[in-house]
UniProtKB/TrEMBL annotation:
Residues 44-288 form the G-protein coupled receptors family 1 profile domain. Pfam families: 7tm_1 (PF00001). Keywords: Chemotaxis, Disulfide bond, G-protein coupled receptor, Membrane, Receptor, Transducer, Transmembrane, Transmembrane helix. Residues 345-354 have a biased composition (Polar residues). This is G-protein coupled receptors family 1 profile domain-containing protein. InterPro entries: Formyl_rcpt-rel, GPCR_Rhodpsn, GPCR_Rhodpsn_7TM. Residues 328-354 are annotated as: Disordered. GO terms for molecular function: complement receptor activity; G protein-coupled receptor activity. GO terms for biological process: chemotaxis; inflammatory response; phospholipase C-activating G protein-coupled receptor signaling pathway; positive regulation of cytosolic calcium ion concentration. Belongs to the G-protein coupled receptor 1 family.
Length: 354
């Protein structure tokens, strides 16, 4: 997504052999990270989609989590194309249409994921500070409308990037990137717009929302307050660490023409910052959903049901029969209390007669 890795070029021939070797190792490491993100992100977000969409009661929170998980799920699923391209030294074998589609879908889900994080933060802040208003006006229907508006805004923000993306062939290599003829203010405009809409505004919304939540949470019980502080710190820290290096390096890359020495920094740090940004899609279900007690309960119930259905009928019948047999009272157990009662009754009668 930044201009080098999915954008404007490869290593130049003037780079020293040591740098090329370092970049090669980093790309291999990034490829491994991509594979882990694809597996963990699709499985984790898929579980969130399954539980929030089919097992939990539809509420405002489940609407947010379902759409957030859907955005992260699509983001990690389409990461397969980027991983394949990276494994072939940024060669793009999927054609012009998939070049634009992959860029569009990836950016749509990047913007949507960030926007939903901001929406969840603002909704939590309002629910804590304006309790009565939230109980009366905070409805599932409004959350669905806002979610549709977020998806529309994400698609609108992503359209210019997909429009400029193209496939170029140079030195027997096919790359999906921004055209080399795109100069002037266009790269700066795209980069600044992505930073403002994809990081600065959402981060400020998340930061101030959780600061307000933290202030409100100080009145709660001590144990609950500690857990709230840990969750709030984890959310802000994860968002900041995952996305800030990505955007900083994007601005650094635009200065390569004026400062050629920055090229080595971009080539080495670029794949690492992108891996960090992609990793946020794996952390979202853990930070926002898996910490929820109700979600954990529903997830355990669903997993147990799947395991029961996976067992063979013979095994189930065996387990059922063994359980039923264990519940049948033994003759000695049933007669012993009766004998004790008869003995006790006879003793009482004797005492009455005397």
């Amino acid at each position: 997504l930044y201009f080098y890795l999915l954008g404007n070029g490869n290593l130049s021939a003037s780079n020293p052999a040591g740098l090329e070797m370092a970049v090669k190792h980093i790309q291999t490491f990034s490829l491994v990270v991509y594979c882990v993100i694809i597996v963990v992100g699709t499985v984790g977000n898929g579980l969130v989609i399954y539980v929030t969409g089919f097992k939990m009661k539809k509420t405002v929170n489940t609407v947010w989590f379902l759409n957030l998980a859907l955005a992260d799920f699509l983001f990690t699923a389409f990461l397969v194309f980027t991983a394949v391209s990276l494994s072939q030294q940024h060669h793009w074998p999927f054609g012009q249409f998939m070049c634009k589609l992959n860029n569009f879908v990836s950016l749509v889900n990047m913007f949507a994921s960030v926007f939903f994080l901001a929406a969840i933060s603002l909704d939590r802040c309002v629910s804590i500070w304006v309790v009565v208003w939230a109980q009366n006006k905070r409805t599932v229907r409004k959350a669905q409308v806002i979610s549709a508006a977020i998806w529309l805004a994400a698609a609108t923000c992503s359209t210019p990037y997909a429009y400029f993306r193209t496939v170029e062939v140079s030195k027997n290599e096919t790359n999906c990137r921004y055209p080399s003829t795109m100069t002037g203010n266009k790269p700066w405009t795209l980069c600044i717009f992505r930073f403002v809409m994809g990081f600065l505004i959402p981060f400020l919304a998340i930061f101030f929302s959780y600061v307000a939540i933290w202030i409100r949470a100080r009145r709660m019980q001590r144990m609950r307050k500690r857990r709230c502080h840990r969750i709030i710190f984890s959310i802000i820290f994860a968002f900041f660490i995952c996305w800030l290096p990505f955007h900083v390096l994007s601005f650094i890359e635009l200065k390569i023409n004026h400062y050629p020495d920055l090229g080595s920094t971009v080539h080495v740090a670029g794949p690492l910052t992108v891996s960090l940004a992609f990793m946020n899609s794996c952390l979202n279900p853990i930070l926002y959903v898996f910490m929820c007690d109700e979600f954990q309960k529903k997830l355990k119930q669903s997993i147990w049901l799947v395991l029961e259905n996976a067992l063979a009928e013979d095994h189930l019948s065996f387990v059922t029969s063994s359980r039923s047999l264990s519940r049948i009272p033994r003759k000695s157990d049933s007669t012993a209390p009766a004998e004790g009662k008869e003995t006790e009754t006879s003793m009482i009668l004797k005492s009455n007669k005397e």
